[in-house]
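Q: How would the structure tokens look for this protein?
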Amino acid sequence: MKKANRILNVVLCAFLGGFIGHALFLLWDRKKNPGFYDMQSAPWYTGLLVSGAFALAGVLLCLLLKFLLRRRMKKNARDAEP
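A: Here is the predicted structure in token form.
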């Protein structure tokens, strides 16, 4: 159970790190190439909103799994007591 919790922590941090890295790259690229983003019909932050939605979905899924895992660990601990 602890191993599964550790894996979920790594996946959770990967989702957050991926989103933060994508956001920083997008901000840097927007400063470097403003003309490229000005000629697009959608606002420059649309890609950030889409990746943010996917990252949020991944984070919520990980948190739900962590909650269920913690609940199961507590139930197993209660059942193991004499």
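The chain has a mean pLDDT of 92.

The radius of gyration is 19 Å.

Upvote if useful.
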